[in-house]
Amino acid sequence: MKIKDGFLLRQFGEGSIVVAVGEGSENFNKLITLNSVGAFIFKKLGNDITREELIKSVIDRYDIDKETAERDTDAFIGKLKEAGLLDA
Q1: What secondary structure does DSSP assign to the chain, as a single string?
Q2: What is the pTM of this model?
Q3: CATH number at residue 72
Q4: What is the number of structural domains in the chain?
Q5: CA 46 to CA 78: how far, in whole Å?
Q6: Which residues contact 16 (CB under 8 A, 6 or more apart)?
Q7: Per-residue confidence of the chain (88 residues) as pLDDT tens digits?
Q8: What is the extent of the structural domain holding 71?
Q9: What is the pLDDT of residue 10?
């Protein structure tokens, strides 16, 4: 899975935001704010990555248990899919 072209992550003060550019902005006129974990996952999704690779990256980066990483990562991926930001 991978973030669709036309969506960029930008630092905004202490947090991060996702903005649509180019063709992406024609169908997406929202602003998404992300915490540091969301920004980490979004960056990882800049390249094609499997769910398993993504979860392993979250576990390695944040030193959390697998169940928590799966639950939180799946919830975040679900929100990205719902917003139409993912090429699955």
Answers
A1: -EEPTTEEEEEETTEEEEEE-TTHHHH----EEE-HHHHHHHHHTTS---HHHHHHHHHHHH---HHHHHHHHHHHHHHHHHTT-EE-
A2: 0.89
A3: 1.10.10
A4: 1
A5: 16
A6: 9, 10, 33, 34, 35, 36, 38, 39, 42
A7: 999 988 999 998 888 999 888 765 666 767 889 999 999 999 999 999 999 999 999 999 999 999 999 999 999 999 999 988 998 6
A8: 2-87
A9: 93
What's the confidence (pLDDT) of residue 88?
A: 64
Compute the distance between CA of residue 22 and CA of residue 1 in angstroms, rounded to an integer. 21
What is the token pair recorded at 27?
């169908």
Q: Is residue 77 a contact partner of residue 3, using CB atoms and an 8 Å limit?
A: no
